[in-house]
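Cross-check.
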Amino acid sequence: MKNLLVRAVLAVVGTAASYLISESNVRADDWGCKVILCLSSPGGPLQYAECRPPIQKLWRELAQGHSFPICSGVGFRASSPAYEPYYCDEGYGLTTRYGDSGREASCISRKSQTVSNRECYSDRAGGILSSRWYWNGSERQCRRYVTRRPHIRSQPHYVDVIIDGIGRQRVWY
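Predicted model, tokenized:
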């Protein structure tokens, strides 16, 4: 079944590429059309072995500052390359602040969380009350917004690709 699907994808790539390179259209780069097809795969751009070489070439080209490849006749747009080296776990938002060693990135919980009572203090940090006492039935609990170190991405650069009929996809490289 998998081989049949791979052959179908390759047939579509070949058909799309030959159509897009016809004399009536602007000459399209076959590699660009393969990239678009692989990016539109529901299982991800590297789902099929045949997609790995064009996608890996895409990452190399973008990392060297080259523009996104073209594929005439297919409605798509790509943003300018951007850089986002950090990310947070679900339920946390990325923020930057100035600390002892300059500008620092951190993750802060979107909702206050119950913490140990020794972490409850009443000072104000940046105008925001850092922790508060709450009553949970007959028990007093401390709640505050928790901060954590962010994760570092192995591929921190990205472009947003919008493919007509499929939607927006962020491509990390």
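Confidence is low (pLDDT under 50) at residues 1-28. The first strand starts at residue 76 and ends at 78. Passed to J.P. for a second look.
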